[in-house]
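no rush on this but wanted to send it before i forget. theres a chain ive been looking at and ive put its sequence and its fold in token form underneath. please have a look and point out which stretches look like helix strand or loop to you. thanks a lot i owe you, the record is right below:
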Amino acid sequence: MIVTAPAPSPVAERRTPRGRGGRLRRAIALVSAEAAVSVFAAFLLTYLGKRLHVNPMQRIGQVSGLAAIQLRLLLLLAVTVLLYLALSRRWPGAAVNIGAATVAGLATGVTAAGNVVALRGTTWPLNGYGGDVGNLQTWAYNVIDGVPLPPEYPPGFPHFLAFIAEVFFDGRVEYAAKWVMIGFLAISGPVAYLAWRMLLPPLWALGIGLTSALPLFDLYKPYSPLVLVVVIPVFAKLVQVTMRSDTLSRGQALAVGGGLGALLAGLFLMYAGWFVWSAVGVVVLFAIVLGGLARSGGLRALWQGLLPLLAATAVFLVLAGRYMVRLLGASGSTKDTYFYFDTYTDPAYFAMWGVDSPGPQRLVGWPPLGELGGVGLFPILLVIGLAVALGLALRQPMVLTLAACTASAFLLRYWYASHMARDQAVQLYPRTSIQIMYCLLALTGLAVYYSVQRIRDWSRSHETLVLPRRSGRGPARRSVVIGALCALGLLYGMAGSATADAFMPKDPSKKSLGTLAWYSHTLQQPNGKCPHYAPKDECGAFNLPERPGKKKP
């Protein structure tokens, strides 16, 4: 006898779209709550750092400030756990999301609070008005005065800095720069978490997204690594949408692709370097994905897969095409001849880098000799993570994207490094270390994620044979969540403190990153006074550079 399901009633047909709409509204509300809680936690801890009254030019003051930040972090972590327990009794799913989002905000709130302590008593950002940060302030003034910016540099940050200066600081860019940099640093954790939430559950987005970004966070120019932290997951999401476009309607495919294209355009206008290092891998990856769709589903599947990709490309070109043309036009004539510490390092070594700001210029025995043929244990673990991720989930969009961006960065790194002697040009190739490290760390995290998935699937299939049935898994799940939140919170607290400590003011003779903060405390402020903690109340003279485009009164 054949049993057929009853035909759905007209009432059920009417309720189905409403049910989907309700789920969509709840999902949007939950993501909005995650974003709000995460950003609030980051700025709260940053504000608490502003309330610390220590002398950052003395080592004892620096240590006291860092310890006070850690104390506040512990208290906020305790509040986060209590909040999770309170919410989990009624909304267990939302409680996990809120708890993970809060820890993501605290993760970079620690580093931002440390930077606030390092710059206490001075209105300057790190390095005052010198180096790259001085150029950014000059370009922000150019935006205000209507002077064209350099064609090769992304216009997003100078325009944003100029906007903040005009709205909140009466047009004084030198006052705005400090807090804009600290603000970008504070939101790095929430933004990284939300980017990976497009692809992973909350705790995995926290563990993989934030842990992979730990070596990247830079107090000097925090917007650059922030773009990298976001752009790779966005690429992965676009790959995912393209591969699974058959599950979307035509309108949904166009809308999602257009939204991702707009996000990529904003990131490109903020900092374009990571797009350059990823370009070869991303183009090849999409060609492979589209070819696979054509082989498996014919022209119909190919066209369906092209829809989100074409929408993303069209929106990207509309919003960022003008700058991309300028960048491509300037690339042939722009020659980077700044040879610094990292350009003399073995090009196959990427585990650590000295960056292109003040730092050790002569280190004997660098890079450190590794245990296996000169390779250290940490890179070996990353390579093992790469192998496991590829072996378990080669066809997954996240793994494909990260592998493609890693290969692309390696390819261009060795290309430019091999031509360095001939062309006498660096072309910023050492910065590929940052992208390679980020991608390999994320792949190692995904190796753990997919291994857990395989073990969980196996245990479910054998549960009745080898595993006793358990009832009341709620308490066990809560214990796992609490353990993850506490462990990750402590890890991020230690990493954030170490990063902030590296940028604490140190005498220039030390040749360290702390030189940047030292300059900020020893340069005359725009109001003509020395910073509050300037040694012996003495500081170098400063006159704001001429602004040729400034409008005459």
In short: Confidence is low (pLDDT under 50) at residues 1-17, 358-362, 465-472.
